Amino acid sequence: MTTAVPDAAVRLPVTTQRWAALTFLHWPVDAAAVQRLLPRDLRVQTYDGATYVGLVPFRMEDVRLGPLPVVPGWSTFGELNLRVYVRDGAGGEGVWFLALWCERAAFVAVTRAAGVPYHRCRAAVRDDAGDVLRYRYASTSRSAPVRFDAQVRALGEVDASSGLERWLTARWAAYAVRAGRTWRIPVEHEPWTLRRGSVEHLATDALERHGFSAAGAPLVHVAARPVDARLGFPRPAGRPEVTPRA
Question: Most buried among 9, 14, 101, 140, by the most CB within 10 A?
Fold first, then answer.
């Protein structure tokens, strides 16, 4: 069951990073359509009979690989990801990324080598107007073009410890396929406070390019403040990957 806080700790992170100006936009979609996009050993998850596709824009800050220091001028950049929610054959839950976009060519190269489908883009992320967040992404990748232009207003806090809010936002692993195998990447981050949000402007082709429709207003949740995150070493899906919490 998805939990509001991780039940295990990432002791030896491959990368640490801070997630800032983070917004979740979710639309209900057909579960069979999602399943067709997944590797054979993953199954789409549903909540009350429905599943969701999510677009998540945010700013990565203080990104570092392993024990390496933060590189000034390189370690902060905009990211956008398109995701669905899945379960593996051993019952593990997590995120399957249909595509991810960021500004740093070196980061794209490293993550693609690990089987994570990153692509280059230009990005602008602004959260300097009180409760208003502004995002603009334009892909520079011919293999995964994307356009995303949005303005979101953060509203009151929501209880994300249970229900659909927890199911959508409390995810402690991501999956990737490399060398013909599916790998599970553990994720740990600080507890966050979520706020409801409203979309004041949205123009994107990200869903349509992957066979979904962005018709109708999305469910919107905004992280109230940045959180620090740790990503662990990938393990074959279905095997333990982190040390239990003390």
Answer: 101
